[in-house]
Amino acid sequence: MANAIKNKLADMTGRNSSDKAATEEADKYRLVVTAGPSYDVSTHSVVHVNTDTPVVVENEFLKAKIKVRIRDYRGLPSTSPATSPYFNDPVHASDQYSIAFSFVPKVDIPSTHAIWGNDFDHPIRDRLPPGFNYAFKIVKEFIDPGLTCDAYADKPWLYGPSLSCWFIFRVDEQIDLAGGEDFPAPVEDKAMSEGGSGSGNAIRAHLNLPENNHKRRKHFLAEPHRAAFTFEKGRLYQADFYNPYLDFGNFALKLPGFSLKVLKYVDNKSHMLRYVFKNRENGDVYFNVNFKLLWGEELLSALAVDSGDANMQNLSVGGEGVPAQADINGS
After folding, report:
1. What percent of the chain lies above the pLDDT cut of 90?
2. How far apart are CA 162 and CA 263, in angstroms?
3. This model's pTM is above 0.85
4. Rounded to whole angstroms, how far apart are CA atoms 241 and 245?
5. DSSP character for 34?
């Protein structure tokens, strides 16, 4: 079994790589992506990256369908393709990843306090790289002026208004969840476009939402514009969050004038990046997506689950967890 796992590692990284040192470094880590309705990872499902299979998330606030695309993906499940047709679109030619989702609220969700971003359950100030404050200034000035951050708090966070953070946003038709009506997940082989459909277009027109996604993001930087918008109970919304700055294939951060290999700042606590859609005022979590690096014994255990070892069907990996075999293999 051990040899089989080692062979899987070699196959997943490309044992014929001309850069032996880079390959050996990459061999030590694998990425696994999960999504769920709360911070509790026992409620999460493994995301089958770069596939047409969404993770369905549901709680008291909404029902959502989530897809993740990552360029040069070498993570788990091992059946996930290395890329997606999504990256063939000229709009996304330089993007490294995408978190795309559709959702239908079960209750009205005011957008004033609806945020999107990253947070942590533990301090990371001792793991912040040199130049972090400079890097954040670059992000705020050139990428998203709506972001605010406290990286030195006991529970660090980086948030922005969801309606100005999401790069693509759609307002679509009403959906009768209570009556059993279904709704589509983001399409895998086609990039999402800004806009809406049916009565959703009428809502956008009534609120004078710009048709251009850049102008719409700027529009929602103004608090009065956010206060005028409510995620309506029973209406379908779709969004896509993407950028070229986080390179999950090479574990690197690449900003204008600033780049960083992140592996040397990873330890047993700072090895998971969490994206969350939540209410900042009362803490209600609508859904979150976790990008977790596995290594060492945790990785070997996860690879055994991925291989379908009958003795490991009930495995849950580590304190922060990777869902068990049925979830990883999609059965």
Report:
1. 66
2. 29
3. yes
4. 12
5. E
